[in-house]
UniProtKB/TrEMBL annotation:
Residues 1-33 are annotated as: Disordered. Residues 9-20 have a biased composition (Basic and acidic residues). Residues 39-256 form the FAD/NAD(P)-binding domain. One of its GO terms (molecular function) is oxidoreductase activity. This is FAD/NAD(P)-binding domain-containing protein. Gene3D superfamilies: FAD/NAD(P)-binding domain.
C-alpha cells in the first residue's frame, strides 16, 4: 500500500484575500435586542450554529434568533484559528456547514467559482477532491464560504451579541436568558462548541496559571526567546511552527512516546454511514471505549518534514514520553516544568495545548435535565434533543455519544443538523417527522 504524504507547502495558503460577496438584502432598522419570543433560538454562531440556521432556512423556518458571544457568525472560530496562524483546515472539501437533502452552493462549488483567486497549490487540492482523494481546504476559502452562507441564508440579520447565562424550560416555552436580554422560544438548539481543557490542579495548585504560562487560545508575548509547548495535537504543531518562524528556541513536551501523524484525529470510517452504524450497534461501555480509542490527538502529515528538520537542526527539542508533574516560575523570570521523570525544562514562556472538552449544556440547563453520564448528556438518538427536555437539542461535540467521534467534526455537524432541523420543522408544523438516520437507543 502506498501512503501519500503531502508536501509542507500546503500549509502556506494566503490569508485575508478580498472575496466577492453577494449583496446583502435590505433590512429594517435593527432594534437594540431581538423580539422577546421566537420559534427557535440557537445558542452559538460557530460552524454548528451556522449549519443549523442555514438548514432551518431551507426548511422554511424564518423566526430564528441566534445568540453568540462575539455577535459575528463564526467569529470565535476564525479568531482562534488566526491566533494560531493556521492557514488550512484539517477537514476536506466535503466537510462544511450545511444540511443533507437540500441542494445548495457547497464548499467545493464555491472554491471552483473563485478559481482565479486560488494559488496553483490550492487548485491542485480541488482536483484531488474531485478525484476522490484527501484534500486540504484553505482557511481563507472556508471563511469566505461561511460569509457567503451568512448572507444568502439571512443568518447575519438574525444574530445578536450576548452571553447566555441560563436556559430555563417553562410550561409554554424555553427561555434563553443572556446578559442583555431574554427570549422565549418554542425550541432551543445548543451549539456552544468546546472549551479549552484546564490543567491539572497539581501542576500549580489550581486557579490562574503562574506568570509566563498561558493556554493555546491566548497570545504569546513577542519578547519570548525560548518557548515550551505542552501537548501532542494539531494545535501544538501550529504553536511550534509559529514559534520557530518567530526565531524562538522551542521545547516540546509530549506525554506519548512518539508523535502521531495522520489525516484526522478521528478514524475516517466514522465519517461514513457504515462507521456510524458501527457505533450505533453497541452499548454504552463499548461506545466509551470507541471514543477513547478513536479520538486521539494527532498532527497533519504536512507538519512532519518541518518538525523533523527543526529537531535535526537543534531549533526544536522534543521531550517524548514525558508527563508534566509541576509548573513553577523560577528565579530570573523563566518558567520551570518539573517532569515526572525528574527532568526539568525551562523557558521564557509555556503554552499549554491540552485539548478541549465538549460543552454539554451543564451550567445552562438544570443538571437534572442534562442527566450527564460519564461526562455526556442523555440525548434522544433520533432528534438529538435532551431526553428530559425535548424542546432543547444539541449540535456539535456534545452529541458524541450518539454520533461517535465524528460529532466534533464539521461533517458530524452536518449529520446532527439533518436530524435536528427536520425534527424542529416537523414539530413547528405540528407533525411528527422522522429524521433520515433514526437509530436504536442504547
Amino acid at each position: 500500500m502506498i501512503k501519500f504524504v503531502p508536501e509542507p507547502h500546503l500549509l502556506d495558503s494566503p490569508r485575508g484575500r478580498d472575496w466577492p460577496r453577494p449583496p446583502a438584502p435590505p433590512s429594517p432598522a435593527r432594534a437594540a435586542s431581538p423580539a422577546p419570543a421566537a420559534d427557535v433560538v440557537i445558542v452559538g454562531a460557530g460552524p454548528a450554529g451556522l449549519a443549523v440556521a442555514s438548514a432551518l432556512w431551507h426548511h422554511g423556518v424564518p423566526d430564528v434568533v441566534v445568540v453568540d458571544r462575539t455577535g459575528r457568525p463564526c467569529g470565535r472560530f476564525f479568531g482562534r484559528i488566526d491566533l494560531l496562524g493556521q492557514r488550512v483546515l484539517r477537514s476536506p472539501y466535503e466537510h462544511h456547514p450545511g444540511v443533507e437533502g437540500f441542494r445548495d452552493c457547497e464548499l467545493l462549488d464555491f472554491a471552483r467559482l473563485h478559481w482565479g483567486r486560488l494559488t496553483p497549490t490550492e487548485r491542485r487540492e480541488i482536483r484531488m477532491s474531485q478525484s476522490g482523494h484527501r484534500s486540504v481546504v484553505p482557511v481563507d476559502v472556508f471563511d469566505a464560504y461561511c460569509a457567503h452562507l451568512v448572507t444568502t441564508h439571512h443568518v447575519g440579520e438574525k444574530t445578536w451579541q450576548a452571553t447566555v447565562r441560563e436556559v430555563t424550560p417553562g410550561r409554554d416555552a424555553v427561555t434563553v436568558h443572556t446578559d442583555r436580554f431574554s427570549v422565549a422560544a418554542r425550541h432551543v438548539v445548543l451549539c456552544p462548541g468546546e472549551e479549552r481543557r484546564p490543567a491539572p490542579e497539581t501542576w500549580w495548585g489550581g486557579g490562574h496559571p503562574p506568570r509566563g504560562v498561558s493556554f493555546w487560545d491566548e497570545s504569546v508575548p513577542p519578547g519570548a526567546r525560548c518557548q515550551v509547548v505542552v501537548g501532542a495535537g494539531l494545535t501544538a504543531a501550529h504553536l511550534i511552527t509559529g514559534a520557530l518562524e518567530a526565531g524562538r528556541e522551542v521545547h516540546w513536551v509530549v506525554r506519548e512516546t512518539g508523535e502521531r501523524y495522520q489525516c484526522a484525529d478521528v478514524n475516517s470510517t466514522f465519517f461514513r454511514p457504515e462507521g456510524r452504524k458501527r457505533f450505533d450497534g453497541v452499548g454504552w461501555a463499548e461506545r466509551l471505549d470507541l471514543m477513547g480509542r478513536f479520538r486521539r490527538a494527532s498532527i497533519m502529515f504536512e507538519f512532519r518534514p518541518l518538525l523533523e528538520r527543526a529537531e535535526a537542526e537543534g531549533r526544536l527539542v522534543v521531550h517524548r514520553g514525558e508527563a508534566v508533574k509541576e509548573i513553577a516560575p523560577a528565579v530570573g523570570g523563566s518558567v520551570v516544568l518539573r517532569l515526572e521523570s525528574g527532568r526539568r525544562v525551562a523557558g521564557d514562556h509555556v503554552v499549554l495545548a491540552l485539548g478541549t472538552t465538549p460543552s454539554i449544556g451543564a451550567g445552562l440547563l438544570p443538571d437534572d435535565l442534562v442527566d450527564a453520564r460519564d461526562g455526556w448528556p442523555s440525548l434522544d438518538e433520533r432528534t438529538l434533543s435532551y431526553r428530559r427536555e425535548p424542546r432543547v437539542s444539541v449540535v456539535g461535540a456534545a452529541a458524541g455519544m450518539v454520533l461517535g467521534p465524528a460529532a466534533r467534526n464539521i461533517d458530524g455537524h452536518r449529520v446532527a443538523t439533518t436530524r435536528v432541523a427536520a425534527a424542529i420543522a416537523g414539530q413547528l408544523r405540528g407533525a411528527v417527522t422522522a429524521p433520515a438516520e433514526a437509530v436504536v437507543g442504547v
